[in-house]
Amino acid sequence: MKIIVTGGAGFIGSHLCERLLEDGHQVTCVDNFSTGSELNILECQNFKKFTLIRHDVVKALPKNLKVDAIFHLASPASPNHHSKLSYLAMPMETMLVNTQGTLELLKLAKQNRAKFLLASSSEVYGDPKEHPQNENYNGNVSTTGPRSVYDESKRFAETFTAYFIRKHTLDARIARIFNTYGPRMLKADMRMIITFITQALEGKSITIFGNGKQTRSLCYIDDMVEGLVRLMFSPRTKGQIVNLGATEEHTVLEYARMIKKITYSQSPITFSEDLPEDDPKKRRPDIKKAKQLLDWEAGVNLKDGLSKMIEYCKQNL
Ligand SMILES: NC(=O)c1ccc[n+]([C@@H]2O[C@H](COP(=O)([O-])OP(=O)(O)OC[C@H]3O[C@@H](n4cnc5c(N)ncnc54)[C@H](O)[C@@H]3O)[C@@H](O)[C@H]2O)c1
């Protein structure tokens, strides 16, 4: 198949490109490198069936581009208010890639009668009042707070996708991705796990925003890629919205302690009052639908995943 992966030079996108190439597909990565990196796609460049297009997907791709399936992953994704690569630091780019960018890619999919997968986010649930979150929950999201540039634009990306499914019978689906971690996360985008690991390895304080009682569930990258591939290609997935994420839930403080232990770090764990506005207090997906529809659940054990990630950080950071 001819497959486009937008955001293919990013963390999840680069692993997905590699997997699709290994499966024998012809893969075109479309990326503007705003938060992605050339290093991420070094392995992909070894495949003859890999093409890179440097392009901002807010603008339409060439009309004559032939494609059978589009994975739309392009978007800044880090919530850390101290990172220059976060969606908070790139508000306009984030809103546009998820709205205008999604529209352009849906149009391309329609023109080619291609399959389409939107990488949405657990952030569409906001600071949830239901726990765990299932796909029918409509969320608790501020339309105007600082995080809304991401949360609301992902929600609108879903609206666009749902419209194309209804109006144009497009073969599209929506993945609501929950926190994912693994090799190739950038230190500079300062997401929780990479930050804790680098702080622990460098012997600096492991800094927790707030009291550390907020919970997160972390999915290892290999599991996420498997989930995305199954959601795109399994039968009966047209029009479906599916949570993808791990169900093992821990507090942020527990993650800090686990990382400290695995790295044998002497770093102190410190707390900062600087809790970002609208930071979700609880996060755990209900994945019944993914199990039923895709026969999928995250299989990589947390300790193994963290150990692999820590090894990667030791070699590469
Ligand atoms: N990693 C997670 O935990 C997580 C959780 C929920 C949702 N997601 C979603 O998954 C997708 C991938 O996330 P990630 O963690 O790999 O992030 P990432 O920042 O590593 O990758 C995003 C990629 O998109 C590219 N990009 C951004 N704007 C673009 C534009 N206008 N045109 C072309 N390319 C553009 C970036 O350069 C980067 O390579 C995102 O849509 C994100 O919202 C990720």
β-strand number: 13
Helix content: 25-40%
Which structural class matches the secondary elements? alpha/beta
Strand order of the largest sheet: 3-2-1-4-5-6-11
The residue ranges in which pLDDT falls below 50 over 5 or more consecutive positions are none
- CATH architectural arrangement: 3-Layer(aba) Sandwich
The CATH superfamily title: NAD(P)-binding Rossmann-like Domain
Which fold name corresponds to the CATH topology?
A: Rossmann fold
Class in CATH?
Answer: Alpha Beta
The CA-CA distance between the termini, in Å, is 35 Å
Biggest pleated-sheet summary: 7 strands, parallel
Ligands (ions, cofactors included): nicotinamide-adenine-dinucleotide
Mean pLDDT: 95
- Give the SSE order as H and E letters: EHEEEHEHEEHEEEHEEHEHH
Provide a count of the helices.
Answer: 8
Overall geometry comes to globular
Beta content: 15-25%
| Gyration radius from CA atoms, angstroms | 19 Å
